[in-house]
Specification:
By secondary structure, the chain is of the alpha/beta class. Helix content is about 40%, strand content about 10%. It starts with a helix and ends in a 32-residue tail after the last helix.
Length: about 260
């Protein structure tokens, strides 16, 4: 009986120590993740003190442009690195080049002892006449998109499947979220008037919540580091894991 009690106590202590283990999470991506107008800060705020979130996302960044910053990030030995690119990549190279860069990121993260988590790009908040998120190929004097953001989300998913990595389908989950709450509520997320890509505090918090719901399935061990859930704000609707229940969508537009 005493031996059984001792074993039970030892197991309990081991579980407690595992639960209290410190974790470092790196974020790397474009402006939709970055400190000024991305979901990164709101995401970080949802973690308990034993988790350290390092945000290396940068406004205007592509996978190619931020490659050296990734090298700096992995020197900090993060346990996990969430990778979300696409908004600017689609203006500069096709999905084949995008996928090659993504594989390079994963290889370097693994070599440093970390675990890569691929995140598809959050949608832009542009709606059609029926009140649904749409996808367009923008071509103007400033730039010409190589493919829709949905095409890059599909490429990100394919790389995650190929390399057997955790995948957070933020693209489709955010499309479902905005289709659910509607155009008017979605516009209340804008960083500034007319900006349907970046987030104010309210928008960042809502998108971070969408990500965290997906995280519980994609990386359940990391979800144990979260603070207690906060009640959903009135008018925002309940947030649930969307990507598992929605099918392929036509895509997501660019401003």
């Amino acid at each position: 009986m005493r031996i059984l009690f001792a074993l039970t106590l030892l197991l309990s202590l081991s579980v407690s120590q595992a639960q209290e283990k410190t974790v470092t999470v790196g974020l790397i991506g474009d402006s939709t993740v970055a400190e000024q107008s991305g979901w990164g800060p709101a995401f970080a705020d949802r973690f308990a003190s034993r988790a350290t979130i390092i945000n290396y996302a940068k406004n205007g960044a592509t996978l190619q442009a931020l490659s050296k910053k990734l090298d700096d990030l992995v020197l900090l030995n993060p346990d996990y690195v969430l990778i979300q690119f696409g908004h600017n990549d689609q203006k500069r190279y096709d999905t084949t080049v995008y996928s090659d860069h993504l594989r390079s990121y994963v290889k370097r993260i693994k070599k440093a002892g970390g675990k890569a988590v691929i995140v598809s790009s959050v949608t832009r908040r542009s709606f059609d006449a029926d009140g649904k998120i749409v996808s367009n190929l923008v071509k103007n004097e400033k730039y010409s998109y190589r493919a829709t953001l949905t095409d890059y989300a599909n490429a990100a998913e394919a790389v995650a499947e190929e390399l057997e990595l955790p995948f957070i389908d933020l693209h489709r989950a955010s499309i479902a979220h905005h289709n659910k709450i509607g155009r008017d509520e979605s516009m209340s997320y804008n960083f500034k008037e007319g900006d349907k890509t970046h987030f104010n505090k309210k928008g960042a918090e809502a998108i971070a919540e969408v990500i965290l719901e997906e995280l519980k399935t994609a990386v359940p061990e990391l979800a144990t580091c979260l603070k207690a859930a906060v009640p959903a704000k009135q008018g925002a609707g309940s947030i649930e894991s969307e990507s598992a229940r929605i099918g392929r969508v036509p895509g997501e537009n660019a401003d």
